[in-house]
Design brief:
The chain is an alpha/beta fold and 224 residues long. Helices cover 37% and strands 11% of the residues.
Length: 224
Amino acid sequence: MPPKAVCLLSGGLDSATCLALARRDGYETYALSFDYGQRHRIELDAAARVAGALGAKRHIVAKIGLDAFGGSALTAAIDVPKGRLADQMDDGIPVTYVPARNTIFLSFALAWGEVLGTGDIFIGVNALDYSGYPDCRPEFIEAYERMANLATKAGVEGTARVRIHAPLLRLSKAEIVKLGRDLGLPFGLTHSCYDPGPGGRPCGACDSCVLRRKGFEEAGVEDR
């Protein structure tokens, strides 16, 4: 039987590429998405499309409601920054950062992994072409993996060592696009925009849209 892996899936380009990569590497994938009170909930529709297209064994959407705390342009009535150039995104942590989001998401993946009997967790974080998020750094992933092996029954008993796979961590957005293309990822099923318009049409001006466009242009790949 193939090994199992829990794959965090937002419906965006990076997480979809990560899911496709786990499938290529022979894992039976279990996709995990979150309805966390995000304003751009169209991404959940994209996650469902991607999970289906890439043959995930199961896809769960966990409802956790981070909008109860606010503090982010993605969960509260705070304007999403528009029109920033890619080189301007290195200036501090933007208001689109959702407090502790990846820490919380990985905790849910860790719990599901224990139930499934696996310690393999895939997350599509990226430390190069990213918007300054502290929970997308190599230091965070390494520290979380150490903690996870101390915090779980499987880790303590040695039945399943937790491994946080972050295969996109040190790739540029263009390299991620090329990887997705080579994996046969249907880009048109993914969604990246932080502030979509009616029907989910991307705004084209938020940081996520800018980084996505930059990646496709540098890769020489058409974004469908």
